[in-house]
Amino acid sequence: MAALDQTQVKEGVDQETVDAVREVGGAYKYGWETEIEMEYAPKGVNPDIVRLISDKNDEPEWMTEWRLAAFERWTKMEEPNWAMVNYPEIDFQNQYYYARPKSMEEKPKSLDEVDPKLLATYEKLGIPLKEQMILAGVEGAENAPAEGRKVAVDAVFDSVSVGTTFQKELKEAGVIFCSISEAIKEHPELVKKYLGSVVPVSDNFYATLNSAVFSDGSFVYVPPGVRCPMELSTYFRINAENTGQFERTLIIADKGSYVSYLEGCTAPQRDTAQLHAAVVEIIIEEDAEVKYSTVQNWFPGDENGKGGIYNFVTKRADCRGDRSKVMWTQVETGSAVTWKYPSCILRGDDSQGEFYSIAIANNYQQADTGTKMVHLGKNTKSRIVSKGISAGKAQNTYRGLVAMHPKAKDSRNYTQCDSLLIGDKCGAHTVPYIEVRNNSSRVEHEATTSKVDDDQLFYCRQRGMDEEEAVALVVNGFCKDVLQALPMEFAMEAQQLVAISLEGSVG
Amino acid sequence: MALPQAKQTVTEERLATLTMPDAGCTKKAREAALARLRQMGLPGRRDEYWKYTRPDTLTSAEAPTAALFQTDEPTMFHEFDRLKIVFIDGVFSPEESDELSLEGVTIDRLEDICGKDIHWAKELYGVLEANGQTPVQRPLAALNTAYASDGVAIHVTGKPSKPISLIYRHASETSDAILHHVVRVESDAEVTILENGPAASRFNKCMEIDIADGGALHHIRAQGRDHQRRAATHMFTRMGTESVYKSFTLTVNGVLTRNEQVIELTGDDAVAHVAGACVGDGEFHHDDTVFVTHDAVNCESRQVFKKVLRNGATGVFQGKILVKEGAQKTDGYQISQSLLLDEDSQFLAKPELEIYADDVACSHGSTSGAIDETALFYLRSRGVPTREATDMLTLAFLAEAVQEIEDDALAEVIVTRLQDWLARRH
Q1: Is the N or the C terminus of chain B less surrounded, counting Cβ atoms within 10 Å?
Q2: From CA A224, how far away is CA B260, in angstroms rounded?
Q3: Is residue B320, in this structure, part of any structural domain at all?
Q4: Nearest-CA neighbor of B142 among B237, B17, B34, B9?
Q5: Which range scores top for mean pLDDT: A3-17, A233-247, A312-326?
Q6: What is the number of domains present in chain B?
Q7: Does the residue A81 lie in any domain?
Q8: Whether residue A472 has pLDDT greater than 60
Q9: Is B393 within the bounds of a domain?
């Protein structure tokens, strides 16, 4: 927000306010690049590249075969075109599928050995990879009990995981939290059993591509009856140019366990679009509960729609056990194109799925996002709250499925999706699919589209707020349902994000 | 893009059974429609727009047979003074129809129009249908335009004293009818059009309606009770400034019904209401597909659809409100609800919104569930027997759609028909 920097502050205007507005309303904050020597696999994707990625990760033969089979499938698949997004054709052979910092050639044994440049990168992003971390900028965090403010972080930089904090402490609790490449080597029995069991290899075009070329990601296993002693978190950073990031996350919550998982992502500002195709699989056994929260803040492209991340993500949770529970919360503000539907398979009786989403699209961003709630077990419950905000020339689509299978007796779904339009050049769309195949279940869907309420705006302005501030406040009210579901670590960030994306959209 | 082989085969096999009538001034429109159809191909199972309804029996070369519904009851709307236009298995019957003359309206048979080079209907025939092919393809409507063998052109210039009643009789178990009507309502003119009857074993009907500024059209339809009949209908409506279009459809029985409504609000302050009530039992598949486009300021649209399903019946609703850029002050409303009377029935819905204007209020709701146990208990505790109580609640559920009919006498006829269905239990 260059204009603000040059603005002469008038008498009577609080400098702090100007600083705060600059902070919140500034341009994309994470658009800088870390200068670090990288090592790339040759451009393009083919069986040799798949083998090379597998080889770089030092994988056993079965994993290589699994990837190759996926690649074989992928060559026979077609890119989906049903989403309401438009982008130039992606040349899958004109990008890198593997990039890692040279200094990561020898995997560091502890955080102390990690390249200081990498540590500095995460420090700058507000994610210090130190074990006594207090998350920057979170109000009240310093007063929280020591246990409560610990967050274990797995940091993924381009194609590799650079380090995972608190591994020792987690190990004492019996929780396994490491990079997936490490898990393939250390816990092959778990990976073999669960990988691809929620999102099958041939699930969809991008998931299949991911199965073939995923380079790293996080792995979590919470043993029976364990309540994970701290929040787990993965922070994804794309740094290298022309490089696709394909990470794979696998979370297993065994019987009666609980874990809360956070995910954040950013990328440098560049003129060319970059591809990100991730897969997240979550397995939830009897009486277990998983909370998965995302603040997606990939580079959204500039105000003319140049550059940005194409975010094609497959996320799915399988509530296998009875009384299992999953909660997806997402704040989607980044990416030039988003194609993402975190879903819940409610297989166990009495299982529950929840989906809370705020998707904000500004400038030329396009978001097509939503969820699937597949009710298979008896007495299963799901709730969907989706808030979409469009500004500038952006298009924002909610797309969802609620399916009640014949055997899912006495199940319930409630869906609410609201869209807000700021300006007359943007679009908001709702595409819900509702399939009810038994009569003891109840399904309710409602959606509204409206503009920022004039009366509310007037009220705020009357109290001395400027228009932009007032819109931010009204929109925050509009999004409150979702923001409240976010873990405290994200609350502050999320609120700021809401304000950021609204910059320039009034008037 | 070339059509997949299977689609092309189905399309050509169907076309081989049809002959284009002597078309006169509709010739160009028919040929263009045929070209469109060949490009699209007939719908197949894998088409997104046919996700919930299998089109194969609507597109097959031969129509499946359908037994006639035997009843001694007088036909629908018999108690009303109306101008009757009767089609038997899709063929106009001059004997059973009234004289086609009424003040404020002129009515011509499609056959007569086809004999002429100049006719007002030329400006409309196939035009709204062609418009309605984007953004979603409707190949069965293109087939209709190309091959319609009969129909009427209704030109409303005033306010006719009685409704125009289109009666479709079903006489042969193997009939396969294609009818195409065009309706133009001039400025400040107003008309009520009634439609009833099963028409044929398989019925493909298309109606193109153009309502000029300030015009109004009320449409009430009751589809035939023959259990095995199949129908695919399209209504394409274009609306001018301050015009009004209100349509209600009652569907009782029928093995397969697909009713498409394509409405375009092109003039400011126009009002469009479409509603439907359907009750189905057993082998019954009913699909309401509605596409409303707001392309003007301050228009209102309402979609109200209610379905009662039993014994494995299937109800489908695909509704869309598209608000184009600049269509500010739009008020769009859409509700689709189903009442599933047993475990085997199903309801499949896709209620969509697509909005490109910021000063609008659009909402849609969709619910599905069983009879409310609390309400049932309340009625029973007041001494109402279970069956009666269920019927009362079912009727109350359907009432919201029936209330969309402005004329109380016509609404009463619909309610009676619904009560009969409940009493008969089939």
Answers
A1: N
A2: 54
A3: yes
A4: B34
A5: A312-326
A6: 1
A7: yes
A8: yes
A9: no
Residue A336, amino acid = A
Residues of the domain holding A313: 40-340
Mode of pairing for the β-strands spanning B176-185 and B190-197: unpaired
Domain contains A437: no
How many other CB atoms are there within 10 angstroms of residue B271's CB atom? 17
Residue B110 lies in a domain: yes
Look up the ipTM and state it: 0.90
Partner residues linked to A368 by β-bridges: A339, A397
**Other beta carbons less than 10 A from residue B416's beta carbon:** 11
Residue A180's SS3 state is helix
**Domain carrying residue B145:** 5-370
Contact at CB, A433 and B367, closer than 8 angstroms: no
> CB of A414 within 8 Å of any CB in chain B?
no
User: What residue of B is the nearest CA neighbor of A426?
Assistant: B356
Residue B421 counted as domain residue: no
- Chain B contact for A428 (CB, 8 A cutoff): yes
Residue B104, phi-psi category: left (phi > 0), alpha (psi -120 to 50), beta (remainder): left
Interface contact flag, A446 B361, Cβ < 8 Å: no
- Asked if the model's pLDDT at residue A244 lies above 90, the reply is no
Cis peptide before B135 (omega within 30 of 0): yes
Phi, psi of A154, deg, nearest 5: -110, 120
- B162-172 tens-digit pLDDT: 999 999 999 99
List phi, psi (to 5°) of A205: -45, -50
Token duo for residue A182: 């490490």
Angstrom distance (rounded) from CA A341 to CA A346: 15
Does B342 contact A439 at a Cβ distance shorter than 8 Å?
yes
> What is the spatial distance between Cα A358 and Cα A369, in angstroms, rounded to a whole number?
10
**Dist. CA A397–CA B355, nearest whole Å:** 10
Helices assigned H by DSSP within A139-179: 167-173
pLDDT in tens, A157-184: 887 777 777 888 899 999 999 999 999 9
* Contact in structure between B195 and B231 (CB atoms under 8 Å): no
Q: How many helices (H) and strands (E) does chain B have?
A: 9, 20
How many domains, chain A? 1
Contacts of A105 (CB under 8 A, 6+ apart): A39
Give B334 to chain A, closest Cα distance, Å: 10
Specify if A491 maps to a domain.
Answer: no
Under 8 Å between Cβ of B136 and B291: yes
CA dist list (Å): A200 to A219, B32, B129, B263? 17, 46, 43, 42
Q: What is the pLDDT of residue A445?
A: 86
CA B269 to chain centre: 24
Question: Which amino acid type is present at position A137?
Answer: G
Q: Do A441 and B341 touch (CB under 8 A)?
A: no
Q: What are phi and psi of A167, to 5 degrees?
A: -60, -35
Which helix or strand (DSSP H or E) is residue B398 part of?
helix B386-402
- Per-position b or e across B291-310, b if 16+ CB within 10 A of its CB: bbbbbbbbbbbbbbbbbbbb
Whether residue A363 lies inside any domain: the answer is no
In terms of Cα–Cα distance, which of A58, A270, A322 is closest to A183?
Answer: A58
Q: How many CA atoms lie within 13 A of A208 on its CB side?
A: 17
- Residue A409: pLDDT over 80: yes
Query: What percent of chain B shows pLDDT beyond 90?
Result: 87
Q: How much is the average pLDDT of A179-199?
A: 94
CB pair distance less than 8 Å for A449 and B326: no
Residues 6+ apart with CB under 8 A from A216: A57, A156, A159, A160, A161, A179, A180, A181, A247, A248
Residue B405 DSSP code: -
Contact state of A419 with B353 under an 8 Å Cβ cutoff: yes
- Token readout for B390 is 């269920």
B4 touching A (Cβ < 8 Å): no
A5: Cα separation from own chain's centroid: 32
- Work out the mean pLDDT of chain B and round it to a whole number: 94
